Every structure is written in structure tokens, then in C-alpha cells.
Amino acid sequence: MFGLNKIIPVEPNINFLGLRRNFLIFSILAMLISIVLLSIKGLNLGIDFKGGTLIEVSTKNTSIGELRDILSSSYSDVSLQEFGNEDIILIRLQNKSNQESIETVNSVKNLIQDKVVEFRRSEFVGPTISSELLLRGFQAVSFALIAILIYIWLRFEWQFGFGAVVALTHDVLFTLGLLSILNVEFSLATIAAILTIAGYSINDTVVIFDRVRENLRKYKKLELVDLFNLSVNNTLSRTIMTSLTTLLALVSLFIFGGEVIRPFALTMIIGVIIGTYSSVFIAVPTLLIFKFRPQDEDD
Amino acid sequence: MKNYPIWKSFTVISLVLLGIIFAIPSIIYDENSENWFLKNKINLGLDLQGGSYLLLEVQLDVLYKEELDNFVDSIRLISRDESVKIEKIDIQENEVVVFFSNKEKIKDIRDSFFQMYRGVSLQISNNRLSIKLNDEYRKIIQDSAIKQSLEIVRKRIDESGTKEPLIQRSGKKRILLQLPGVKDPERIKDLLGKTAKLTFHIVDNENTSALQNNLAPFGKIIVPDMYDENTKYLLDKRAVVGGENLVDAKGSFDQTEGHAVSFRFDTEGAQKFGKVTTNNIGNNLAVVLDGVVITAPRISSAITGGSGIITGNFNAQEASDLAVLLRAGALPAPLEIVEERSVGAGLGADSIAAGQIAAIIGMVLVCIFMILIYGIFGALANVSLIVNLFIIISLLGTIGATLTLPGIAGIVLTIGMAVDANVLIFERIKEESLKQTKVFQIVKNGFDRAMSTILDANITTLIAAVLLFAFGSGPIRGFSITLSLGVIASMFTALMLTNFLVYLYLSISNKKELKL
Question: In the A/B pair of chains, how many CB contacts fall below 8 A?
């Protein structure tokens, strides 16, 4: 129609694997930095995983400073933050026990009653629950990775499963590292985002692997590096197209979806970019470790 | 239509129509409709319609400790009957160890005790009897406590006027509450935060030294006043009558006493109450609620009618809330709120509006992009994408799933990912078109070759979504539901609807060559 698809050639011939060393070094560095960041700086844990109380209010004729003055006279560990616009304020408190929280919410409400138009939400997560949620989140991510590995293993040869898991681990670590740098709040929704990223990244990887497998059967004589390059090139326009449409939807969610969902959308955007990158530059080169040919001759 | 079986066209068209028709109730969204068809609409989660989610934990430790105390009382009574002296009683976390002065009758004592508490572990060694709360016994206590608590919580919530609450057991010792549309969660939390154990005790005014030393003799307890911690009462440990004998309680107003709670006993309660008040004229009767004395009036005359009022420094709301608690009955053990998420209706409405805008803009962007890249084929894929959205909505409505804010995010994400299957197919068609010229063969090969890739790619996403459902809680489950439905619907729309539309387009346009 408009011929825009001609921008991506039908049979592109870009030497992706020629650059693999550079990208491998980049990714290893990125993962190492992520690990260091996660162990030193850590993640900005939200109340889901840290426990505590959160109250969102919409206010009138007041400022965040005034509210802070009122509340900090009664609570030493209160933190306030504008949320989207200057009338909406998030109040966070760290509670020591479950019982305390009920009284806290009540007394905070009483203290700022006359400055507030609406109490938009209040959340409290007790210490036992927050550690349970963290454990379950961790379990969900690990089981998902294992289940995906098993599926790939059943559908492909095990070498592909190895490549996929290397790529997935890379994606999860890299994304967490960026979340740590950007200080994005880590909540239950982030766990959902990371699992979806895992699903998305593997989806991308599977499409390329599918093509690698097909080409392995088709071109028996081709050098492995060239064959992998060909497979990446074959699927390149799909890889780019799907990432772009997904990113379009996510950017729309990031901009228009509201303040509560923004960290989720941001995490997804980061993850989709990393996942797309890793399918091409991590998952496929990892396959080069293995010698596929001797097995193929058995077919 | 050439090359396309009629039954297949029929199936595709009917499924698409069903998808659109069943999306209607959710799109109209008439909240109060009783119409059987319009009732099949999406349930909005608490984060979208406003309301409170509460997770309560039954404080079983309190019950276990109470049971150990009961053991001690019973063993004292039994040994008194058997005239055996107790040297020492050791109460540990999980067991009571009783040291007797001689060991002759210890077996009889054990047997009598076992008659009263079947299932406990009893062990004799020399002059020592140890009574242990074993796991089975604890489980019995636990199960009956949770069952009772559920019932009482349900009654209290019903009395509070909350519509359509969801109350269920969650795990071993927790109760989950979903209260849609609750405006004042603090009041609900207050109602649930009280055990509401009401008992009536005779006050011992003679033994003043016990109060001074703050040491209650056997059979007595020291209880503080509700309004003044320093005022203490020495009471008979045994209650004359308790809240379980109440049949009614309501807030009332008395000219001289102010706001009060009037109550009525059942026949058994009325008899007990009448007997005790007859025998104790001149003494004080303490009304004890959750371990504090509300009031302790002097009994001036026998009360045989079985009704009375409790006065305290109540205001109207407090009196009526206390009446609610007394009507619903006492909780077997205190409940602790371990998690709360309350959302006001304003934020919920904002979230829905923002989600809709994000979905529409995301949709428009993706559609424009598809047309720019694939031209007329892109437009066909867009039709599939829109139908896909309708199918997700109608599936959510018919299976009665709950749409949450993360759920909306899942839908928007699906819009971006759903075109993937179409893209895979179109890219295959593009490749095939370089190899041969027969238009229908190109299309057929394109779809066939893309099929296994589409399945593989989508199943991995489904795995992640299913695990998220298994391990996630509340709103996050909403995300995994919409994502799963979106992935499944996108496979159908790409492999069947886009397929149908492409064949239809090629038949009508009668194209001799295909260029994507």
C-alpha cells in the first residue's frame, strides 16, 4: 500500500552474529552491574513487600509541605509524595505491628481531615503478609522459568532450552538492574510485569528458534554462523513489527493509563526492549556453543 | 468463495457474532439490570468500583492458651474431688505439667480428665501428669474457631448493611473479606476488631486485700474498668450468664442514663439471671465485655423478666454498634487485620476512564501502524484485532471474571501483542510470494507455515500467565486472566478470522498476483 514495509528488506542480510562478541561483553557487564546494584542499592520495595501503610488523598487549599508538617509532628517515619498532580498526595507510613495500623489510619485521617477532599485509597500490608507475598512472587517467577524451560525442551532440542534460559535470566536480571537504577517501585504488579516479560521474551526467542530449526533441516551444508544469521534475518521484520506494536500499546498505557499503572507500564517497556534484544543477540549466539550437525545426520 | 469450505465460513462468522453479541452486556453495563442476558456483564474488581478488601487472621494462640487454662481449672477440680494435693503446676507453651504430692490416685485423675478432654495427650511419670495439646487437638480447636469466626463475621457484616460481601476462609487461619462499595472501612474494621465476649459476674466486695496485692485467689479474677484502668474489680471467675444466651440487643435511649443497650435473654439465660439476681440482692453485678468492666450496678431487686439494659458512657453510634456485636455473638478468638486494601469510588472511576483512554489510543496507534506496513492486509488484521477485543470482553462477561486495574493493563498489552500472530502469517506470506505465483497457494502456505510458530510462541506466554494466576493474589489474578484470554482469542482471530478475511478479499478482488 504505502510501501513502508520496504524499509525492512524482505531478505535482509545483516551480520548479527559477527557482532556477537561486543554484545556478549555488553550483556555480561550489564548483568554484573545489575547484580552489584541489586545487592548494594537493592530495589525500591513498595508496601506489598515491605509492609506498611499507604494512604492516597486528594487535597484542596494546601501544600505537600503543610501536610508533612502536620503529620511529621505525630509520626517520625512518614513520607509524602505528589502523585500525578499536586493535589493528589501519597502518604506512606511504616508500621510496626498489625494492631498499630488500624489506629494509624484512623489518626492520620483525623489529623488531615479538613485539608482533604477525598480519601482515594488506603492500603495496609502486615509484616507476615509482605514476606509471604515476596516468597510467592519469587516462586511464581522461578516456576514460570522452569515450566518454560521444560516446554522448550519438549518442543525443541535441549540446547534450545539452554539458550532460552540464558536469555531469560539475562532479561530478568537486566530489567531488575534498571528498575534499581531508575528507583521504580517494586510491587506485586512488577512481578506480573516480569513474568509477562519472560513470556514475551521467550515468545520472541521461540519464533527465531523455530526458524533456526527449520533452516537446519533445509540447509544441511551451510555454516552454523551463517545459518543462524540467516534465521535471524528471516524473522527480523516480524521481530521488529511485534515489538513496535507492543511498545505502542505500552507507551499508550504509560502515558494515559493513570498513575497507579505507570510503574507497571514502564517495567514492561524496559522488559520488551531488553527481551527483543536478547532474543537476537543472546539466545541465538548461545546456540553456537553446541554442535548441532552430528545429531542432524541421524535424522 | 473459492478454496474455502462453507462450514468453515459458517463457524467463523457465528463465533465472531457470538463474540460481539456477548460483549453487549458489558458495554452497556446496566448495573441493576435483572435481564438474564444483560446480567452477563463483567464484574468490576474492588480497585475499579471502590470497596474494601480485608484479610483477617484468627488469633489461635489466644485459644490454645485459654484451653491450657481450662486444663488447669479442671485438674484442680478433679484433684479436689479425689482429695489429692497438688504441689505445683507448670504451664508451658504447649503443655501443662502437674506435680501431685502422692502418686496413688494419679491414674484415676488422668482417667477423669480424659473423660472431659478426649484427644489430648496424657503422660504419667512418677508423681507427674503432663497434659499436652497435640497437633490433632489443636486442629480441632482451629477448625471450629475458624468456622465460628466465619459465621460471626458474616453476621456482623450483614448487620452493618454491606451489600454483596464476599466472606471466605483463606488458608489455615485466615478469613478473606471483599466488601464492594464500602464508604467507611474504618467502621467495619472497628466492628471486626472486637471479640464482643459479654459475660455477667458477681462482684466480690469483701476480699479487699486481694485487690490491693493484685493477686486473685482461685476462682476469682481481677478485671479493670473500661474507662479507668486504675479502677479494678474482683469478680467470680465463673460467669453467671453470657452473651451466648442473648436473643436480642438494640441501642436505646434512657432519660437518666443516656444512650444504652437494651437486651433480652433466652429462657435458659432468663432463668439463670433471675436466680442469681434473687440470691444476690445488695451485691454488685459486673457487665464484662472483652476483659473490661463496662458497668457494675448494685442489684436492688430480682430481675426475673429476662431483659435489662447496659449503660455506659456511650454515644448513639457506640451503643448501636455494641448492640450489633451482641446480636451477632462473640468471636471465639480475636481477629487481627493483616492486610487491607480500600479504594474510594472516585479513584476507581478515574482508573476505568484512564484505562479506556489508554486502550483506545493504543488500539488506534496499532491499527494505523498495521495499515502503514501491510496496507489492505493490515486493515484485515485490524478487523481481527477489534473482534479480538470484543471476544475478550464477552468471555470476561460470560465466565463471570473480575476485571481489575492490572486486568485493564493486560487488555491494553494484548492489543499490542495480538497482532503478532497476524504479523507472523503476513511475513510468511511475503516470503512465499517470492517463491511462487499462485495466489491461493501462497496464502495457504503462509498460514500453514506460521501455524506451529504461533502455537509455540503463544503457549509460552500462556504458561507465564497461568503461573501468575496460581501464585498471584487479588488484582494480579485479573491481569493473568485478561492476558490468557487475550492470547487465546488472538490465536483464534489470527488463524481463523484473518484467514477467512484474506480468502474473502482475494476472492472478491480476484487478484492474480500478491504483493505484501
Answer: 246
B170 in contact with A, Cβ within 8 Å: no
CB–CB of B458 and A203 under 8 A? yes
| Residues contacting B264, CB < 8 A, separation 6+ | B246, B247, B248, B249, B306, B307
Question: Which superfamily does CATH assign the domain made up of B6-50+344-509 to?
Answer: Multidrug efflux transporter AcrB transmembrane domain (1.20.1640.10)
Mean pLDDT across chain B: 88
Take residue B340 and report the three cell numbers written for it. Answer: 487491607
A161-181 mean pLDDT: 92
**Cα of B430 to nearest chain A Cα, Å:** 8
Give percent above pLDDT 70 in chain B. 99
Per CB-CB distance under 8 Å, the chain A contacts of B483 are 196
CATH number of B60-138: 3.30.1240
Interface mutation target, options B55, B420, B477, chain A, most CBs of A under 10 Å: B420
* Residues of B in Cβ contact (< 8 Å) with A157: none
Segments in chain A forming alpha helices (H): 20-40, 47-50, 64-72, 98-112, 127-155, 158-182, 188-218, 224-256, 262-278, 284-287, 293-297
Alpha-carbon distance A119 to nearest alpha carbon in chain B (angstroms): 7
Q: Please provide the average confidence, as pLDDT, over all residues in chain A.
A: 87
Residues spanned by CATH 3.30.1360.200 within chain B? 196-329
Q: Which residues of A touch B376 (CB under 8 A)?
A: 1
> Within the 2-61 window of chain A, which residues sit less than 8 Å (CB to CB) from chain B?
2, 4-5, 10-11, 56, 58
| Ordered domains of chain A (ranges, CATH) | 7-45+129-297 (1.20.1640.10), 52-125 (3.30.70.3400)
- Name the grid cell of B184: 467507611
Q: Any chain A CB within 8 A of the CB of B408?
A: yes
pLDDT digits (tens, 9 = 90+) for B480-516: 999 999 999 999 999 999 999 999 998 888 877 777 7
Select from A253, A262, A267 the residue whose CB has the most chain B CBs within 10 Å, as the one to mutate to test that interface. A253
Nearest beta carbon to residue B373 from set A241, A249, A258 = A241
CATH number for B196-329: choose from 3.40.190.10, 3.30.1360.200, 3.40.50.1820, 1.10.3470.10: 3.30.1360.200
User: Does B188 touch chain A if contact means CB atoms closer than 8 Å?
Assistant: no
Written as nine digits, the cell of B455 is 502455537
Distance between CA A213 and CA A217 in Å, rounded? 7
Backbone angles phi, psi at A55, to 5 degrees: -130, 130
Cell of B444: 495457504
> Of B186, B452, B463, which has the smallest distance from its Cβ to A148's Cβ?
B463
Kindly report, residue by residue over B409-420, the tens digit of the pLDDT. 999 989 988 889
Mean pLDDT of A142-169: 86
Cell numbers found for residue B335: 481477629
Convert A240-285 into a string of H (helix), E (strand) and C (coil). HHHHHHHHHHHHHHHHHCCCCCHHHHHHHHHHHHHHHHHHHHHHHH
B417 lies within 8 A of chain A by CB: yes
Q: Which residue ranges does chain B devote to CATH 3.30.1240?
A: 60-138
pLDDT band at A23 (very low <50, low <70, confident <90, very high): very high
Choose the closest CB to B373 out of A4, A264, A268.
A4
For A146, other C-beta atoms within 10 Å of its C-beta total: 13
Q: How many Cα atoms within 13 Å fall on the side-chain side of residue B203? A: 23
Residues of chain A with Cβ-Cβ distance to B468 below 8 Å are 140, 144, 191-192, 195-196
Instruction: Delimit the CATH 1.20.1640.10 region(s) of chain B.
Output: 6-50+344-509
CB contacts, 8 Å: B407 with chain A: none
**Does B102 score more than 60 pLDDT?**
yes
Q: Are A148 and A198 in contact (CB under 8 A)?
A: yes
